[in-house]
């Protein structure tokens, strides 16, 4: 065959295009591998900073337990708080650190911070604020790393190598305190607003769960998925709020069961920090219904982008942010999706 004939030129062009594509792909892959390596380093550094902030807070709490006046803590609560602080420090960087920190926060419940000496109160508030900031830095690094690792090229070429898949660090934070040692908000400044909420886990016949994709107006580039629900009004209980919110957001009605789970969380939305206690109820639907969002508020129309039904497998594999974090794990355990008294604590 004459290479420089009509057919030969076509072959040369095809080979050249393939070579160029391979070179470009290789360059892009190298660039993403380097960026992924930097992100893994960032996650590791953020994790170390978070652990340091947690260790400092645990040390401050131990000092509080040892020196707080009798009006701030009973002897029993003092011993329990000291033991919880030591357990948190002993957990180090292990996965059990989240549970230990949540227990430490729970043990701080009886603490009357308003009666603490001003210097100790200020140090405790500062330690809380530093934990909030360190946790946000860590979780932001995790989010960016997971997003890149979810790219098709990164997965196909295994650019992450043997690096472990980064995990979010989610813990409850101390509730807002009107005293001088008020708990830090999600941005480490103003106290968080206490808020009760009711949410609904809607499951179809195939055990898919209904989730909305939302965005925080203060951080419009960050999206997340969440269950239907909202705040409890002053004149209603959580079950009534769940029924009302479900009807307004989805058009669905029906008998709810539960609550099945309870979640204590501190978060910010549109620049306002909230300390929320969320009760989750359960609704099973058959057949799969049409979702009617005509009852959305003006804020919901601006911040909720879409809805979809998720399988447990999809939830376990996604790099998207999903609340509650344990949703895939919980849906995989039939015993977890059932009314409980008291409701099962989740994160």
Automatic annotation (TrEMBL):
Query: What are the alphabetically sorted keywords of the record?
Result: Hydrolase, Magnesium, Membrane, Transmembrane, Transmembrane helix
Q: Which residues form the Nudix hydrolase domain?
A: 193-333
Q: Which InterPro entries match?
A: Nudix_hydrolase, NUDIX_hydrolase-like_dom_sf, NUDIX_hydrolase_CS, NUDIX_hydrolase_dom
* Similarity comment: family membership: Belongs to the Nudix hydrolase family.
Q: Please report the organism this UniProt entry assigns to the protein.
A: Actinomycetospora corticicola
Pfam families xrefs: NUDIX
Which Gene3D superfamilies does the annotation name? Nucleoside Triphosphate Pyrophosphohydrolase (3.90.79.10)
Question: For the region Disordered, what residue ranges are annotated?
Answer: 90-112
Q: Which CDD domains match?
A: NUDIX_Hydrolase (cd04685)
Query: Could you tell me the superkingdom of the organism this chain comes from?
Result: Bacteria
Single GO MF annotation? hydrolase activity
- Could you tell me what this protein is called? 8-oxo-dGTP pyrophosphatase MutT (NUDIX family)
Ranges of Basic and acidic residues composition bias in the record: 92-110
Q: Which residues cross the membrane?
A: 6-30
Q: Which cofactor does it need?
A: Mg(2+)
């Amino acid at each position: 065959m004459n290479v420089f004939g009509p057919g030969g030129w076509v072959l040369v062009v095809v080979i050249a295009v393939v070579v160029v594509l391979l070179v470009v792909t290789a360059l892009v892959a190298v660039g993403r591998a380097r960026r992924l390596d930097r992100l893994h380093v960032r996650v590791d550094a953020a994790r170390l900073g978070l652990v340091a902030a947690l260790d400092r807070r645990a040390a401050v709490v131990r000092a509080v337990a040892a020196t707080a006046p009798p009006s701030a803590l009973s002897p029993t609560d003092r011993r329990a708080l000291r033991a919880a602080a030591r357990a948190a420090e002993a957990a180090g960087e292990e996965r059990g650190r989240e549970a230990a920190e949540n227990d430490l926060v729970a043990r701080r419940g009886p603490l009357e911070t308003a009666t603490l000496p001003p210097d100790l109160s200020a140090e405790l508030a500062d330690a809380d604020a530093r934990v909030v900031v360190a946790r946000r830095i860590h979780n932001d690094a995790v989010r960016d790393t997971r997003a890149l690792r979810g790219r098709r090229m990164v997965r196909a070429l295994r650019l992450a190598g043997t690096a472990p898949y980064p995990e979010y660090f989610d813990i409850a934070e101390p509730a807002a305190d009107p005293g001088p040692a008020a708990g830090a908000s999600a941005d480490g400044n103003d106290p968080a607003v206490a808020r009760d909420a009711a949410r609904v886990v809607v499951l179809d016949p195939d055990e898919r769960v209904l989730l909305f994709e939302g965005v925080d107006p203060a951080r419009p580039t960050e999206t997340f998925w969440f269950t239907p629900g909202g705040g409890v009004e002053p004149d209603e209980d959580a079950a009534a709020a769940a029924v009302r919110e479900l009807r307004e957001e989805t058009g669905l009605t029906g008998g709810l069961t539960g609550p099945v789970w309870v979640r204590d969380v501190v978060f910010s939305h549109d620049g306002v920090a909230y300390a929320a206690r969320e009760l989750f109820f359960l609704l099973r639907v058959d057949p799969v219904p049409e979702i009617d969002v005509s009852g959305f508020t003006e804020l919901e129309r601006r911040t909720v982008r879409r809805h979809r039904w998720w399988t447990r497998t999809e939830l376990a594999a996604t790099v998207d942010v999903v609340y509650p974090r344990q949703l895939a794990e919980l849906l995989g355990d039939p015993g977890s999706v059932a009314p409980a008294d008291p409701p099962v604590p989740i994160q």
